[in-house]
Amino acid sequence: MDNIKEIQPEELENRLNNGDDLTVIDVREDEEVEQGMIEGAKHIPLGEIPESVSSLDKADNYVLVCRSGRRSMNAANYLKEHGFKVENMAGGMLEWKGKVTR
Question: CB within 10 Å: which end of the chain, N or C, has fewer?
């Protein structure tokens, strides 16, 4: 079983509103992201995560997001194996009630 910390959408929203130092990475596909993305999130489709590792900073804290939480968990596991500090947003965008940007 993976030992990635899962956070609830409400907790992520509170942390973003409080200015916590974290980067949200949305791993959904382009057409999904067109429907809206968490404000300030960085869009890296799941298939591009391996080649994007070099552009990410291991000092940062990352929260991974997808539609339901499954793909983002895969991305979180991959990044954790490569030494990144990651969390996964449980329930994905299906559960997100906060602001989105298009």
Answer: N
Q: What are phi and psi of 58, to 5 degrees?
A: -65, -15
Rounded to an integer, what distance in angstroms lies between the CA atom of residue 32 and that of residue 71?
13
Q: How far is CA 58 from CA 31, 62, 68, 78, in A?
A: 29, 9, 25, 13
Catalytic entry in 66, 73, 76, 86: 66
Q: How many CB atoms lie within 10 A of CB 1?
A: 3
Note the pLDDT tens digit of each residue in 26-55: 999 999 999 999 999 999 999 999 999 999
Whether the Cβ atoms of residue 65 and residue 41 lie closer than 8 Å to each other: yes
Question: Please, what are the domains in the chain?
Answer: 5-101 (3.40.250.10)
Whether pLDDT at 15 is above 60: yes
Give CA–CA dist 70/66, Å, rounded. Answer: 7
Dist CA 20 CA 55 (whole Å): 21
